[in-house]
Amino acid sequence: MRIGELSTRTRTPVRLLRYYEEQELIASDRLPNGYRDYEEYVVDRVLQVRGLLDAGLPTRIIKRILPCLNTPRTIHMPYVTPDMVATLELERDRMAEKIECLTKNHRAITDYLDAVRRDIQTSC
Q1: pTM of the prediction?
Q2: Residue 50, number of CB atoms within 10 A of its CB
Q3: Which of helix, strand or coil describes residue 40?
Q4: Neighbours of 106 (CB within 10 A)
């Protein structure tokens, strides 16, 4: 697929997709006319990258953990330092806190909608 379709399917600006490619977070083949051609799996990869960026991970760390997101999982991280492990643990813990907060907010909105629906049904 071409970059415009990838942009549409992932709701990611073309400029950002080019940046991801520059950072080696995604890859494309080049057609004879110079256009980028992405494989289908890149849609999921872009969504994974965006999720990790939204969680606060910098691209340099995302690039290093991308092999962990593939199936089968072939992990090759030759330069893992204690700092890298500590950073990933911190980010994992921050994600867990965000998940907990989002889960609470989701429950609150669901409870509110349930109450609104009950009120609508009893009013009719």
Answers
A1: 0.66
A2: 17
A3: coil
A4: 10
Are 18 and 28 in contact, with CB atoms under 8 Å apart?
no
The pLDDT tens digits for 10-55 are: 999 999 999 999 999 999 999 999 999 999 999 999 999 998 898 8
Strands of 1-124 (E only): list them.
29-30, 36-37
Number of helices followed by number of strands (H, E) in the chain: 5, 2
Which neighbouring-strand residues pair with 30?
36
Nearest to 50 by CA among 17, 75, 15, 72: 17
Q: What are phi and psi of 36, to 5 degrees?
A: -75, 145
120: its two tokens: 């609508």
